[in-house]
Structures are given as C-alpha cells and as structure tokens.
Write a structure and sequence with these properties.
Elements: H1 15-22, H2 26-35, E1 41-42, E2 48-49, H3 52-66, H4 71-106, E3 109-113, E4 119-122, E5 134-137
Antiparallel strand pairs: 1-2, 3-4, 3-5
Helix pairs in contact: 1-2, 1-3
C-alpha cells in the first residue's frame, strides 16, 4: 500500500473535513460553491464531497482573497487553472500517441534504386522520380 499514489481528484471528503483542512468555516465552502469558485462533487443524496485538489483550491482562494484579489477575479483564475490542467492532460495523451506512432514507424525504412543501380535511403515524405523503384523494407524480429 506504500507504493499506491493518492488520487487528488477523488471526491472523498465531507464538507466539515474539507473546511477543517482548508482552515475555513463550512459556511464559507458553501458560499464558494454557490459562487462557482470551488465546486465539489455531489453524492446521490446531494451532499458535497471534496477532493484534496479542492482543499488546495480553497487554500489558494483564501490566500488570493487575503491578498486583495476580488472574488470574480479569483473565479476566473480558477477557471483558467482548470483549463490549463485539462489541456496538460490532453497534451500528455497526444505526446503518448505520438511516441507510439514514432515507435511503430521506426522499423520502416524506405530505399530506392538509383539510376546506376545503387541503393539510396530516402527520408520519410521524400518523393522519388517515376523511373526509380521504391522498396519498403521492414526488419523482421530475426534481424
């Protein structure tokens, strides 16, 4: 169990626990929920459930508020942070797909026979003259 990572997005904390961890009154959390600043998940019965990420956001809201940032500005900052988080996940997924695609293509090499019969390696995407034969060689697992 020591190797397991905690899911910071899991909505597991009741409002009283989240409020205590954030150093706030539960009514403040309810107000922030109504304003859309920090919106927790809900159980089937409608109870609020906060994640560790929500608690971190609550602390950030308290700090920004203490620094004089208005609630509408804090709301926009949180909205943008959530968008950045989503985009980072998307980029990470695209990078993984790209790595898989590059790895799949790594084994394919394209060669062409030159006018004198010599073998010429072609870069991917390079067009060849019509008179040149193109052969695709993919190394087998034996090579």
């Amino acid at each position: 169990m020591a190797n397991e990572q905690v899911d910071e997005e899991a909505p597991i904390l009741a409002i009283a626990v989240a409020a205590e961890l954030a150093g706030m009154h539960p009514q403040t959390l309810r107000q922030y929920d109504r304003l859309g600043l920090v919106v927790p998940a809900r159980t089937r019965g409608g109870s609020r459930r906060y994640s560790l990420r929500h608690v971190a956001q609550l602390r950030e809201v308290a700090q920004m508020s203490a620094d004089g940032v208005s609630l509408p500005a804090i709301s926009r900052i949180i909205e943008l942070e959530n968008q950045v988080r989503m985009l980072r996940r998307e980029v990470s997924g695209l990078q993984a797909r790209l790595r898989d695609e590059v790895a799949a293509r790594r084994g394919a090499r394209v060669f062409a026979a030159g006018a004198t019969g010599s073998v010429v390696t072609l870069r991917q995407g390079t067009r060849v003259r019509r008179a040149t034969d193109v052969v695709l060689w993919r190394p087998s697992s034996d090579d």
